[in-house]
Amino acid sequence: MLKILRIPDRAALQKLIQDFDPQSATWVVSDLRSKFEIQQRLLDRDSGYLDTSVMRASDLWKTLLKRAAPAVKIISRDFAKSIVRHFLSAHKETLSLDGVSENFLLSLMDRFAGIIFHPNGPELIEEWFAQNEEAVTRWKSRYQVAGSALRYFASEEMITAKWVASTLQRIPEEQRTWDKPLIVDLGAELTSAEAMLFHGLSRVVDVTILEPSPVWRAKDEFLLRPYRDLEGFASEVKELAAADKSNGQRQVKRFSGQLAEVKEAVAQVRAWMEEGVPTDRIAVLAPEIEDYWPVLKPYLDEEGLPSDKAVSVKLNALPVVNRWLARLRPRRGELTPADLELAYYAFESSNPLRYEQFRSLFVNLYGEEDLHRHESVRQFFEKKMSGASGILPRDVFLEVASRYWENLDNTEAFLLIAREVLQNAHGGMELSLGDWIRYVEAIAASKEMTLSPASPGGLFIGNFLSAHAHPATHRIFLGLSEEGLRKA
User: Fold this and answer.
1) At a CB cut-off of 8 Å and minimum separation 6, what does 10 contact?
2) Where does 251-402 have alpha helices with state H?
3) pTM here?
4) Rounded Cα–Cα distance for residues 285 and 305 (Å)
5) In a domain, 161, yes or no
6) What is the mean pLDDT of the chain?
7) pLDDT by residue (tens digit) across 298-342?
8) What CATH number does the domain containing 30 carry?
9) φ and ψ at 462, to 5 degrees?
Protein backbone atom coordinates (compact mmCIF):
# COMPACT_ATOMS: atom_id res chain seq x y z
CA MET A 1 0.00 0.00 0.00
CA LEU A 2 1.26 3.47 -0.92
CA LYS A 3 0.85 6.40 1.46
CA ILE A 4 2.00 10.00 1.05
CA LEU A 5 2.80 12.12 4.09
CA ARG A 6 3.32 15.80 3.32
CA ILE A 7 6.08 17.43 5.38
CA PRO A 8 5.78 21.23 5.84
CA ASP A 9 9.40 21.56 7.04
CA ARG A 10 12.32 19.43 8.16
CA ALA A 11 11.74 20.15 11.85
CA ALA A 12 8.41 18.32 11.62
CA LEU A 13 10.32 15.19 10.66
CA GLN A 14 12.06 14.79 14.02
CA LYS A 15 9.04 13.13 15.67
CA LEU A 16 8.92 10.51 12.90
CA ILE A 17 12.61 9.72 13.39
CA GLN A 18 12.11 9.39 17.15
CA ASP A 19 9.25 6.90 16.65
CA PHE A 20 10.98 4.94 13.86
CA ASP A 21 11.38 1.20 14.54
CA PRO A 22 14.63 0.06 12.86
CA GLN A 23 13.81 -3.62 13.31
CA SER A 24 10.62 -3.64 11.25
CA ALA A 25 11.10 -0.96 8.56
CA THR A 26 13.67 0.68 6.27
CA TRP A 27 14.24 4.44 6.17
CA VAL A 28 15.43 5.53 2.71
CA VAL A 29 17.51 8.73 2.41
CA SER A 30 19.28 10.47 -0.45
CA ASP A 31 22.83 10.96 0.87
CA LEU A 32 25.44 9.36 3.09
CA ARG A 33 25.56 12.10 5.70
CA SER A 34 21.81 11.86 6.38
CA LYS A 35 22.18 8.10 6.68
CA PHE A 36 24.93 8.45 9.27
CA GLU A 37 22.94 11.01 11.26
CA ILE A 38 19.86 8.80 11.55
CA GLN A 39 22.00 5.76 12.33
CA GLN A 40 23.74 7.67 15.12
CA ARG A 41 20.40 8.64 16.64
CA LEU A 42 19.27 5.02 16.50
CA LEU A 43 22.54 3.97 18.11
CA ASP A 44 22.09 6.48 20.93
CA ARG A 45 18.49 5.37 21.48
CA ASP A 46 18.61 1.60 20.90
CA SER A 47 22.34 0.74 21.07
CA GLY A 48 22.15 -0.83 17.63
CA TYR A 49 20.42 -1.14 14.26
CA LEU A 50 20.29 -3.44 11.23
CA ASP A 51 22.14 -2.85 7.97
CA THR A 52 18.76 -2.45 6.30
CA SER A 53 17.38 -0.02 8.90
CA VAL A 54 18.65 3.09 7.09
CA MET A 55 19.70 2.98 3.45
CA ARG A 56 20.50 5.40 0.70
CA ALA A 57 18.16 5.07 -2.27
CA SER A 58 21.15 4.18 -4.46
CA ASP A 59 22.08 1.33 -2.10
CA LEU A 60 18.50 0.04 -2.09
CA TRP A 61 18.43 -0.06 -5.90
CA LYS A 62 21.85 -1.73 -6.03
CA THR A 63 20.66 -4.41 -3.59
CA LEU A 64 17.55 -5.10 -5.65
CA LEU A 65 19.62 -5.22 -8.85
CA LYS A 66 22.14 -7.66 -7.37
CA ARG A 67 19.31 -9.97 -6.34
CA ALA A 68 17.55 -9.83 -9.71
CA ALA A 69 20.57 -9.57 -12.06
CA PRO A 70 23.78 -10.57 -10.23
CA ALA A 71 25.83 -10.57 -13.44
CA VAL A 72 25.38 -6.82 -14.00
CA LYS A 73 28.37 -4.81 -12.77
CA ILE A 74 27.98 -1.26 -11.43
CA ILE A 75 31.00 0.80 -12.45
CA SER A 76 32.26 4.23 -11.44
CA ARG A 77 31.77 7.36 -13.55
CA ASP A 78 35.50 7.62 -14.15
CA PHE A 79 35.66 4.10 -15.58
CA ALA A 80 32.48 4.72 -17.59
CA LYS A 81 34.24 7.67 -19.24
CA SER A 82 37.09 5.35 -20.24
CA ILE A 83 34.62 2.87 -21.75
CA VAL A 84 32.81 5.68 -23.57
CA ARG A 85 36.15 6.93 -24.92
CA HIS A 86 36.91 3.42 -26.18
CA PHE A 87 33.41 3.21 -27.72
CA LEU A 88 33.90 6.53 -29.50
CA SER A 89 37.21 5.48 -31.03
CA ALA A 90 35.78 2.13 -32.16
CA HIS A 91 32.55 3.53 -33.69
CA LYS A 92 33.56 7.02 -34.78
CA GLU A 93 33.03 6.36 -38.49
CA THR A 94 30.02 4.03 -38.38
CA LEU A 95 28.01 6.32 -36.08
CA SER A 96 29.39 9.68 -37.34
CA LEU A 97 30.78 10.59 -33.93
CA ASP A 98 33.32 13.19 -35.02
CA GLY A 99 33.44 16.03 -32.51
CA VAL A 100 31.53 14.10 -29.81
CA SER A 101 33.38 14.06 -26.48
CA GLU A 102 33.08 11.37 -23.83
CA ASN A 103 31.57 13.86 -21.36
CA PHE A 104 28.89 14.95 -23.81
CA LEU A 105 27.98 11.38 -24.76
CA LEU A 106 27.87 10.30 -21.13
CA SER A 107 25.51 13.18 -20.32
CA LEU A 108 23.25 12.06 -23.20
CA MET A 109 23.28 8.52 -21.83
CA ASP A 110 22.23 9.83 -18.41
CA ARG A 111 19.41 11.78 -20.05
CA PHE A 112 18.03 8.92 -22.14
CA ALA A 113 18.71 5.92 -19.86
CA GLY A 114 15.26 6.09 -18.28
CA ILE A 115 13.62 5.93 -21.72
CA ILE A 116 15.88 3.36 -23.35
CA PHE A 117 15.80 0.93 -20.41
CA HIS A 118 12.04 1.28 -19.91
CA PRO A 119 10.10 -1.64 -21.45
CA ASN A 120 7.87 0.74 -23.44
CA GLY A 121 10.34 3.60 -23.71
CA PRO A 122 11.53 3.18 -27.33
CA GLU A 123 7.95 2.91 -28.62
CA LEU A 124 6.82 5.98 -26.69
CA ILE A 125 9.69 8.17 -27.84
CA GLU A 126 9.19 7.11 -31.48
CA GLU A 127 5.56 8.17 -31.18
CA TRP A 128 6.72 11.48 -29.71
CA PHE A 129 9.14 12.01 -32.59
CA ALA A 130 6.34 11.26 -35.07
CA GLN A 131 4.20 13.99 -33.50
CA ASN A 132 6.98 16.59 -33.07
CA GLU A 133 9.03 17.38 -36.17
CA GLU A 134 11.10 19.97 -34.34
CA ALA A 135 12.11 17.36 -31.75
CA VAL A 136 13.33 15.05 -34.52
CA THR A 137 15.84 17.65 -35.68
CA ARG A 138 17.04 18.46 -32.20
CA TRP A 139 16.95 15.15 -30.35
CA LYS A 140 16.62 12.08 -32.57
CA SER A 141 20.26 11.77 -33.61
CA ARG A 142 21.36 12.28 -30.00
CA TYR A 143 18.86 9.68 -28.82
CA GLN A 144 20.16 7.16 -31.36
CA VAL A 145 23.81 7.73 -30.39
CA ALA A 146 23.00 7.45 -26.68
CA GLY A 147 20.98 4.31 -27.37
CA SER A 148 23.87 2.68 -29.24
CA ALA A 149 26.25 3.46 -26.38
CA LEU A 150 23.83 2.24 -23.72
CA ARG A 151 23.23 -1.00 -25.60
CA TYR A 152 27.01 -1.46 -25.82
CA PHE A 153 27.25 -1.08 -22.04
CA ALA A 154 24.34 -3.48 -21.58
CA SER A 155 26.03 -6.07 -23.81
CA GLU A 156 29.08 -5.83 -21.54
CA GLU A 157 26.75 -6.06 -18.49
CA MET A 158 27.99 -2.75 -17.10
CA ILE A 159 26.04 0.26 -15.88
CA THR A 160 26.77 3.33 -13.75
CA ALA A 161 25.07 4.05 -10.44
CA LYS A 162 22.92 6.72 -12.17
CA TRP A 163 21.34 4.09 -14.41
CA VAL A 164 20.47 1.51 -11.73
CA ALA A 165 16.93 2.77 -11.13
CA SER A 166 16.34 2.97 -14.90
CA THR A 167 17.71 -0.56 -15.39
CA LEU A 168 15.39 -1.95 -12.71
CA GLN A 169 12.39 -0.80 -14.76
CA ARG A 170 12.90 -3.62 -17.27
CA ILE A 171 13.13 -6.30 -14.56
CA PRO A 172 9.80 -7.98 -13.69
CA GLU A 173 8.25 -6.71 -10.45
CA GLU A 174 8.24 -10.15 -8.85
CA GLN A 175 12.05 -10.19 -9.09
CA ARG A 176 12.60 -6.80 -7.42
CA THR A 177 10.87 -7.09 -4.07
CA TRP A 178 11.64 -5.89 -0.56
CA ASP A 179 10.55 -7.56 2.67
CA LYS A 180 10.14 -4.57 5.01
CA PRO A 181 7.96 -1.45 4.96
CA LEU A 182 9.72 1.56 3.44
CA ILE A 183 9.79 5.18 4.60
CA VAL A 184 11.04 7.25 1.66
CA ASP A 185 12.75 10.52 2.62
CA LEU A 186 14.39 11.77 -0.59
CA GLY A 187 13.23 15.38 -0.72
CA ALA A 188 13.79 16.98 -4.12
CA GLU A 189 16.17 14.17 -5.11
CA LEU A 190 13.35 11.76 -6.04
CA THR A 191 13.35 10.97 -9.78
CA SER A 192 10.47 9.80 -11.93
CA ALA A 193 12.07 6.36 -12.41
CA GLU A 194 12.46 5.97 -8.65
CA ALA A 195 8.88 7.09 -8.07
CA MET A 196 7.60 4.32 -10.33
CA LEU A 197 9.83 1.77 -8.62
CA PHE A 198 8.43 2.72 -5.22
CA HIS A 199 4.95 2.44 -6.69
CA GLY A 200 5.78 -1.10 -7.78
CA LEU A 201 7.19 -2.00 -4.37
CA SER A 202 4.01 -0.70 -2.71
CA ARG A 203 2.16 -3.69 -4.17
CA VAL A 204 4.26 -5.95 -1.93
CA VAL A 205 5.07 -3.86 1.17
CA ASP A 206 3.79 -0.65 2.73
CA VAL A 207 5.57 2.40 1.29
CA THR A 208 5.28 5.79 2.99
CA ILE A 209 6.49 8.68 0.85
CA LEU A 210 7.56 11.79 2.76
CA GLU A 211 6.67 14.58 0.35
CA PRO A 212 8.21 18.03 0.92
CA SER A 213 5.40 20.56 1.16
CA PRO A 214 6.93 23.96 1.99
CA VAL A 215 4.92 27.14 1.65
CA TRP A 216 6.86 28.08 -1.50
CA ARG A 217 6.38 24.78 -3.33
CA ALA A 218 4.06 26.31 -5.95
CA LYS A 219 6.95 28.48 -7.20
CA ASP A 220 9.19 25.46 -7.93
CA GLU A 221 6.64 22.81 -8.78
CA PHE A 222 8.93 21.12 -11.31
CA LEU A 223 11.32 20.07 -8.52
CA LEU A 224 8.60 17.96 -6.91
CA ARG A 225 6.91 16.65 -10.08
CA PRO A 226 7.56 12.93 -9.28
CA TYR A 227 5.43 13.30 -6.12
CA ARG A 228 2.55 14.59 -8.21
CA ASP A 229 2.84 11.48 -10.41
CA LEU A 230 2.56 9.26 -7.31
CA GLU A 231 -0.45 10.96 -5.76
CA GLY A 232 -2.82 9.25 -8.18
CA PHE A 233 -1.69 5.83 -6.91
CA ALA A 234 -1.72 6.65 -3.19
CA SER A 235 -4.36 5.12 -0.95
CA GLU A 236 -3.90 7.94 1.56
CA VAL A 237 -2.47 11.47 1.48
CA LYS A 238 -1.97 13.20 4.84
CA GLU A 239 -0.52 16.50 6.04
CA LEU A 240 1.95 16.42 8.92
CA ALA A 241 1.56 19.21 11.45
CA ALA A 242 4.30 21.83 11.42
CA ALA A 243 6.73 21.88 14.33
CA ASP A 244 6.53 24.64 16.91
CA LYS A 245 9.24 27.22 16.18
CA SER A 246 8.07 29.94 18.53
CA ASN A 247 11.44 30.05 20.33
CA GLY A 248 13.55 30.26 17.20
CA GLN A 249 15.34 33.45 16.18
CA ARG A 250 16.67 34.42 12.78
CA GLN A 251 19.37 36.90 11.89
CA VAL A 252 20.51 37.87 8.41
CA LYS A 253 23.92 39.49 7.99
CA ARG A 254 25.66 40.72 4.86
CA PHE A 255 29.42 40.43 4.37
CA SER A 256 31.92 41.59 1.79
CA GLY A 257 33.36 38.14 1.10
CA GLN A 258 33.99 34.57 2.16
CA LEU A 259 36.65 35.42 4.74
CA ALA A 260 34.35 37.85 6.56
CA GLU A 261 31.62 35.19 6.62
CA VAL A 262 33.97 32.63 8.15
CA LYS A 263 35.26 35.03 10.82
CA GLU A 264 31.72 35.89 11.90
CA ALA A 265 30.66 32.22 11.86
CA VAL A 266 33.54 31.14 14.10
CA ALA A 267 32.90 34.04 16.49
CA GLN A 268 29.22 33.10 16.70
CA VAL A 269 30.04 29.45 17.35
CA ARG A 270 32.37 30.49 20.17
CA ALA A 271 29.65 32.72 21.66
CA TRP A 272 27.09 29.89 21.58
CA MET A 273 29.50 27.48 23.23
CA GLU A 274 30.19 29.99 26.01
CA GLU A 275 26.43 30.19 26.55
CA GLY A 276 26.40 26.42 27.13
CA VAL A 277 25.19 25.12 23.76
CA PRO A 278 26.72 21.63 23.12
CA THR A 279 29.00 21.47 20.09
CA ASP A 280 26.99 18.61 18.56
CA ARG A 281 23.94 20.88 18.45
CA ILE A 282 25.68 23.54 16.35
CA ALA A 283 25.83 23.27 12.55
CA VAL A 284 27.82 25.35 10.06
CA LEU A 285 26.35 24.79 6.60
CA ALA A 286 27.02 25.92 3.03
CA PRO A 287 25.74 24.99 -0.44
CA GLU A 288 29.16 23.38 -1.06
CA ILE A 289 31.14 23.25 2.18
CA GLU A 290 34.38 22.30 0.40
CA ASP A 291 34.49 25.86 -0.97
CA TYR A 292 34.69 27.17 2.60
CA TRP A 293 36.64 24.39 4.31
CA PRO A 294 40.20 25.58 3.44
CA VAL A 295 39.40 28.93 5.09
CA LEU A 296 37.12 27.65 7.85
CA LYS A 297 39.37 24.91 9.23
CA PRO A 298 42.35 27.12 10.26
CA TYR A 299 40.01 29.43 12.17
CA LEU A 300 38.34 26.49 13.94
CA ASP A 301 41.77 25.11 14.85
CA GLU A 302 42.93 28.48 16.16
CA GLU A 303 39.88 28.69 18.41
CA GLY A 304 40.23 25.06 19.49
CA LEU A 305 36.77 24.18 18.16
CA PRO A 306 36.29 20.48 17.28
CA SER A 307 34.44 19.50 14.11
CA ASP A 308 32.97 16.24 12.90
CA LYS A 309 34.47 16.71 9.43
CA ALA A 310 37.52 14.66 8.54
CA VAL A 311 40.52 16.31 6.89
CA SER A 312 41.24 14.62 3.57
CA VAL A 313 43.32 15.24 0.49
CA LYS A 314 42.91 14.27 -3.16
CA LEU A 315 45.29 11.54 -4.27
CA ASN A 316 46.66 13.69 -7.09
CA ALA A 317 47.76 16.26 -4.50
CA LEU A 318 50.26 13.77 -3.05
CA PRO A 319 53.82 14.14 -4.41
CA VAL A 320 54.30 10.38 -4.70
CA VAL A 321 51.20 10.10 -6.94
CA ASN A 322 52.20 13.12 -9.02
CA ARG A 323 55.62 11.62 -9.71
CA TRP A 324 54.03 8.30 -10.65
CA LEU A 325 51.60 9.95 -13.09
CA ALA A 326 54.44 12.02 -14.55
CA ARG A 327 56.20 8.79 -15.47
CA LEU A 328 53.04 7.13 -16.82
CA ARG A 329 51.83 9.92 -19.09
CA PRO A 330 54.73 9.71 -21.59
CA ARG A 331 53.65 6.12 -22.34
CA ARG A 332 50.54 7.46 -24.05
CA GLY A 333 52.56 9.85 -26.20
CA GLU A 334 52.12 12.95 -24.07
CA LEU A 335 55.65 13.98 -23.13
CA THR A 336 55.72 17.42 -21.50
CA PRO A 337 58.61 19.38 -19.95
CA ALA A 338 56.85 19.35 -16.57
CA ASP A 339 56.47 15.56 -16.53
CA LEU A 340 59.99 15.07 -17.83
CA GLU A 341 61.42 17.30 -15.09
CA LEU A 342 59.38 15.70 -12.33
CA ALA A 343 60.24 12.17 -13.37
CA TYR A 344 63.94 12.79 -14.04
CA TYR A 345 64.79 14.76 -10.90
CA ALA A 346 62.48 12.97 -8.45
CA PHE A 347 64.25 9.61 -8.38
CA GLU A 348 67.84 10.16 -9.49
CA SER A 349 70.05 10.98 -6.51
CA SER A 350 72.95 12.14 -8.67
CA ASN A 351 71.98 13.57 -12.05
CA PRO A 352 74.88 14.39 -14.37
CA LEU A 353 72.79 17.14 -15.94
CA ARG A 354 72.53 20.48 -14.14
CA TYR A 355 69.02 21.87 -13.86
CA GLU A 356 69.80 25.04 -15.84
CA GLN A 357 71.15 22.94 -18.70
CA PHE A 358 68.15 20.62 -18.48
CA ARG A 359 65.77 23.56 -18.83
CA SER A 360 67.62 24.95 -21.82
CA LEU A 361 67.53 21.57 -23.60
CA PHE A 362 63.99 20.44 -22.80
CA VAL A 363 61.90 23.57 -22.39
CA ASN A 364 60.12 22.53 -25.61
CA LEU A 365 59.28 18.91 -26.45
CA TYR A 366 57.55 17.58 -29.55
CA GLY A 367 58.09 13.82 -29.26
CA GLU A 368 60.15 11.03 -27.71
CA GLU A 369 62.92 11.63 -30.26
CA ASP A 370 63.66 14.90 -28.45
CA LEU A 371 65.00 12.87 -25.52
CA HIS A 372 68.14 12.27 -27.61
CA ARG A 373 69.21 15.83 -26.87
CA HIS A 374 71.08 14.43 -23.87
CA GLU A 375 72.35 10.87 -23.43
CA SER A 376 71.65 10.51 -19.69
CA VAL A 377 68.04 11.63 -20.12
CA ARG A 378 67.57 9.28 -23.07
CA GLN A 379 68.96 6.33 -21.12
CA PHE A 380 66.84 7.14 -18.07
CA PHE A 381 63.60 7.21 -20.03
CA GLU A 382 64.41 4.21 -22.20
CA LYS A 383 64.93 2.24 -19.00
CA LYS A 384 61.87 3.60 -17.22
CA MET A 385 59.50 3.69 -20.20
CA SER A 386 60.13 0.17 -21.44
CA GLY A 387 57.04 -2.01 -21.17
CA ALA A 388 53.81 -2.92 -22.86
CA SER A 389 51.85 -0.65 -25.16
CA GLY A 390 48.76 -0.81 -27.36
CA ILE A 391 45.62 -2.63 -26.14
CA LEU A 392 46.09 -4.12 -22.67
CA PRO A 393 44.00 -6.32 -20.37
CA ARG A 394 43.38 -4.98 -16.89
CA ASP A 395 45.91 -7.14 -15.05
CA VAL A 396 48.68 -6.49 -17.57
CA PHE A 397 48.16 -2.75 -17.24
CA LEU A 398 48.34 -2.90 -13.44
CA GLU A 399 51.54 -4.92 -13.66
CA VAL A 400 53.07 -2.39 -16.07
CA ALA A 401 51.89 0.59 -14.01
CA SER A 402 53.30 -0.88 -10.80
CA ARG A 403 56.81 -0.77 -12.30
CA TYR A 404 56.69 3.02 -12.25
CA TRP A 405 55.92 3.27 -8.52
CA GLU A 406 59.29 3.92 -6.90
CA ASN A 407 58.49 4.34 -3.20
CA LEU A 408 57.76 0.83 -1.93
CA ASP A 409 57.53 2.13 1.64
CA ASN A 410 54.53 4.28 0.72
CA THR A 411 52.07 2.22 -1.33
CA GLU A 412 48.76 3.19 0.29
CA ALA A 413 47.78 5.57 -2.52
CA PHE A 414 48.74 3.05 -5.21
CA LEU A 415 46.69 0.34 -3.49
CA LEU A 416 43.66 2.67 -3.37
CA ILE A 417 43.94 3.30 -7.11
CA ALA A 418 44.54 -0.38 -7.91
CA ARG A 419 41.56 -1.41 -5.78
CA GLU A 420 39.33 1.02 -7.70
CA VAL A 421 40.51 -0.43 -11.02
CA LEU A 422 39.92 -4.01 -9.84
CA GLN A 423 36.43 -3.17 -8.55
CA ASN A 424 35.28 -1.59 -11.80
CA ALA A 425 37.04 -3.49 -14.59
CA HIS A 426 36.59 -7.24 -14.93
CA GLY A 427 39.64 -9.37 -15.65
CA GLY A 428 39.02 -9.60 -19.38
CA MET A 429 38.48 -5.87 -19.93
CA GLU A 430 40.84 -4.48 -22.58
CA LEU A 431 41.55 -0.80 -23.21
CA SER A 432 44.31 1.12 -24.87
CA LEU A 433 47.21 2.07 -22.65
CA GLY A 434 46.24 5.73 -23.06
CA ASP A 435 42.69 5.04 -21.84
CA TRP A 436 43.98 3.10 -18.84
CA ILE A 437 46.29 5.97 -17.90
CA ARG A 438 43.51 8.55 -18.28
CA TYR A 439 41.35 6.37 -16.04
CA VAL A 440 43.90 6.23 -13.22
CA GLU A 441 44.38 10.00 -13.60
CA ALA A 442 40.64 10.43 -13.08
CA ILE A 443 40.75 8.15 -10.03
CA ALA A 444 43.60 10.18 -8.55
CA ALA A 445 41.61 13.38 -9.14
CA SER A 446 38.45 12.09 -7.43
CA LYS A 447 39.62 9.73 -4.67
CA GLU A 448 40.67 11.06 -1.29
CA MET A 449 42.86 9.92 1.58
CA THR A 450 41.97 10.83 5.16
CA LEU A 451 44.76 12.73 6.89
CA SER A 452 42.99 13.21 10.21
CA PRO A 453 39.66 11.72 11.32
CA ALA A 454 36.57 13.64 12.37
CA SER A 455 36.03 14.52 16.04
CA PRO A 456 32.90 12.69 17.31
CA GLY A 457 30.53 15.12 18.99
CA GLY A 458 32.11 18.12 17.29
CA LEU A 459 30.49 20.86 15.23
CA PHE A 460 28.44 19.66 12.29
CA ILE A 461 30.19 20.94 9.15
CA GLY A 462 28.40 20.03 5.94
CA ASN A 463 26.26 20.85 2.91
CA PHE A 464 22.65 21.98 3.03
CA LEU A 465 21.42 18.71 1.52
CA SER A 466 23.20 16.63 4.18
CA ALA A 467 21.83 18.46 7.21
CA HIS A 468 18.10 17.85 7.22
CA ALA A 469 18.32 14.86 9.59
CA HIS A 470 20.77 16.50 11.99
CA PRO A 471 19.22 17.56 15.35
CA ALA A 472 21.05 20.89 15.48
CA THR A 473 19.37 23.65 17.48
CA HIS A 474 21.76 26.39 16.30
CA ARG A 475 22.62 26.75 12.62
CA ILE A 476 24.82 29.09 10.61
CA PHE A 477 24.22 29.25 6.85
CA LEU A 478 27.09 30.42 4.66
CA GLY A 479 27.04 31.27 0.97
CA LEU A 480 23.41 32.39 0.73
CA SER A 481 23.90 34.08 -2.63
CA GLU A 482 22.42 33.36 -6.03
CA GLU A 483 25.72 31.94 -7.24
CA GLY A 484 26.21 29.84 -4.13
CA LEU A 485 22.69 28.43 -4.05
CA ARG A 486 23.05 27.09 -7.59
CA LYS A 487 25.46 24.53 -6.11
CA ALA A 488 22.83 23.32 -3.67
Assistant:
1) 468
2) 258-274, 293-303, 319-328, 337-347, 355-362, 375-384, 394-402
3) 0.76
4) 16
5) yes
6) 86
7) 999 999 999 988 888 899 889 889 888 888 887 776 677 777 777
8) 3.40.50.10930
9) -165, -175
